[in-house]
TrEMBL record:
Domain FtsX extracellular: 77-165
Transmembrane regions: 39-62, 185-205, 233-255, 281-302
Subunit structure: Forms a membrane-associated complex with FtsE.
Provenance organism: Lysobacter stagni
Gene3D superfamilies from the UniProt entry: 3.30.70.3040
UniProt protein name: Cell division protein FtsX
Coiled-coil features, chain-numbered ranges: none
Pfam families registered for this protein in UniProt: FtsX, FtsX_ECD
Length: 314
């Protein structure tokens, strides 16, 4: 009976394969350490999620406010209320005349009949308005300037057919100032709360390092590089950040769903179809990735500081 031949030895892993295996092992081991300490993990992730959700929620709120106020082009429009003695054909001829000007992009005409219909449907006083004899409303021209809207508005005041010129740029400028302040406030909050998230992850990783200091000392004596020792802790911090970012996104989505219906009802009462706009896929991925980077940086700072202090002297 012939002896069985032993299987050929498997070829040794390449350096790149070993490096990849250690990355996978570090990631899986980091997730396992998080699951072995559920309460401490939940506390760390919860604090990070709140710190991330606050500035991101403020940015989202500012974006919705800016969208609610309309585009810049709409805010630059100039409304011309013509004299009541100007009939619709003359108003239409004036609109055609203004469209030929080089400093005007577009002109929209609203006749007195259109104005009355809009007032009847939006004011809730349809029966009372229908009882009024005649139509006291003038024709309205809505002008969209190409250049400086203030100069266009001043030039339109001199037209003999124009009774009142309404230019609403002042409120938009004030609103833009508030929005710029809000964006700056969001950046300040992001910096402060981002620093807080770094400290939270750093403190959590520091505790994990202290519990494994004997293992780290053995690895250092065996000649392990700082990168090899640091890698599991970096993945631990990144896991904290990614999960916290996902939780922050879930909290903001829940807040969006809770506020969407009542805000839509409020907007409809003012004749608007405005509704809250949530996060698209790119924004959601950006939030999660940024949170992961924060966790990675926090773990890297703490681990690097510890390794510099404990590096064996030769």
């Amino acid at each position: 009976m012939s002896a069985q031949t032993a299987p050929p030895p498997s070829p040794p892993r390449s350096r790149l394969g070993t490096w990849f295996d250690h990355h996978v092992y570090s990631l899986v081991a980091s997730a396992g350490r998080m699951l072995r300490k559920p309460w401490a993990t939940a506390l760390t992730i919860g604090v990070m999620a709140v710190a991330i959700a606050l500035p991101v929620g403020l940015w989202a709120a500012l974006g919705n406010v800016e969208r609610f106020t309309g585009t810049v082009e709409q805010s630059r429009q100039v409304s011309l209320f013509l004299k009541t003695t100007v009939d619709v054909p003359r108003a239409r001829a004036l609109a055609d005349q203004l469209r030929n000007r080089g400093d005007i992009a577009a002109v929209e005409l609203r006749t007195p009949e259109q104005g009355m219909d809009e007032l009847r449907h939006s004011s809730g006083l349809g029966e009372a308005i229908s009882a009024v004899e005649g139509n006291p409303l003038p024709s309205l021209l809505i002008v969209s300037p190409k250049g400086d809207e203030t100069l266009v508005a001043d030039s339109l005041r001199n037209l003999p057919e124009v009774d009142v010129v309404q230019h609403d740029a002042a409120w938009r400028q004030r609103l833009d100032s508030w929005l710029r302040f809000g964006v700056r406030l969001a950046w300040v909050l992001a910096a402060l709360l981002g620093l807080g998230a770094l400290l939270v992850v750093g403190n959590t990783v520091r505790l994990d390092i202290q519990s494994r200091r004997e293992e780290i000392a053995v690895l250092q004596q065996l000649g392990a590089t700082d990168g090899f020792i640091r890698r599991p802790f970096l993945y631990l911090g990144a896991c904290y950040g990614v999960v916290a970012g996902a939780l922050a996104l879930a909290l903001l989505t829940a807040a969006d769903q809770a506020l969407r219906a009542p805000l839509a009802d409020l907007a409809r009462s003012y004749g608007s179809q405005f509704s809250l706009q949530g996060f698209d896929l790119a924004s959601a991925v950006g939030i999660v990735v940024t949170s992961g980077v924060l966790g990675w940086l926090g773990a890297g700072l703490v681990t690097g500081h510890y390794l510099r202090q404990t590096r064996p002297t030769t």
